[in-house]
Design a protein that fits this description.
This protein has 253 residues and is of the alpha/beta class. It is built from 9 helices and 9 strands. The longest helix is centred in the middle third of the chain and has 17 residues, at 102-118. The structure holds zinc ion.
Length: 253
């Protein structure tokens, strides 16, 4: 097995944060080449800043999540200079905050899309119940690239993202039959658009040991089964997709 890259791993959150050193030490033994660490709130940004003092090579994504605004997007601009900053995220829209929040969420999302565009960085997008709005906003940023993380939407909505050249992020959810939409997407999306992620520690019923990275093996296996394809071949394509999208990612040997 080659090594998979976990494109969305919240090392800033408990219990991962307290065990960060051990988790990073255990990566290769667990078949994980590296993890991309997204931020979502002011606190998570502070914690990632502090992790990067000890682990300057840790691949970072800086962003304010729609449920954590008002954050401070201008604050992101200084952070982008940090070594191995590979993306802006996670950013997006979340309908669970209700229609009253739409305007402020969209403003903060656009601000961060602008920062990403100006710095030629990909974006990690979080979306709940606002896929058509996200797609509409992305059309205003024609050079934008990125991933719709933990994607759960209709085929029509997924096609909008694919037409915009976006990747789709799949995680442990696809291993559970109740996540029908995600499993359906996993079967038909073009292989060049697939990325793997855990969103650890924010998943429900996936085995997780506090001192180890999330196991993406079952995600790979399930995806290969759903697509009736060879896991090794799939793995190397997904790895290539990841390196292509995150072109600032500096992998240490
Ligand atoms: Zn996340």
């Amino acid at each position: 097995m080659d090594f998979l890259i976990d494109t969305h791993y919240h090392l800033t959150e408990p219990p991962c944060y307290q065990n960060a050193g051990q988790i990073l030490e255990n990566l290769s033994a667990c078949g994980i080449r590296t993890v991309i660490v997204p931020t979502f709130s002011r606190d998570s940004i502070l914690r990632l800043k502090s992790l990067k003092k000890t682990y300057p090579d840790l691949p970072a994504a800086w962003g304010i999540h729609p449920l954590f605004i008002p954050g401070s997007p201008p604050l992101l601009i200084n952070l982008i200079e940090t070594h191995n900053t590979v993306a802006i995220g996670e950013i997006g829209l979340d309908g669970r905050a209700g229609p009253k929040a739409d305007e402020s969420q969209e403003a903060v999302f656009r601000d961060q899309m602008k920062i990403a565009a100006e710095n030629n960085l990909p974006v990690l997008i979080h979306c709940v119940n606002r896929h058509d709005r996200i797609a509409a906003i992305l059309r205003d940023f024609p050079a934008a690239k990125g991933v719709i993380h933990r994607v759960s939407c209709s085929r029509r909505q997924a096609e909008q993202y694919l037409d915009l050249g976006f990747n789709l992020g799949f995680g442990p959810d696809i291993c559970e039959s109740r996540f029908r939409k995600m499993r359906d997407l996993a079967q038909w999306v073009p292989v060049e658009s697939i990325l793997f992620e855990s969103d650890a520690p924010f998943f429900s019923s996936y085995p997780m040991e506090p001192d180890r990275p999330a196991d993406l093996g079952p995600v790979l296996k399930t995806m290969a089964n759903l697509r009736k394809t060879d896991p090794e071949e799939l793995e190397s394509i997904v790895m290539q997709n990841t390196i292509t999208l995150f072109d600032r990612l500096e992998l240490t040997a």
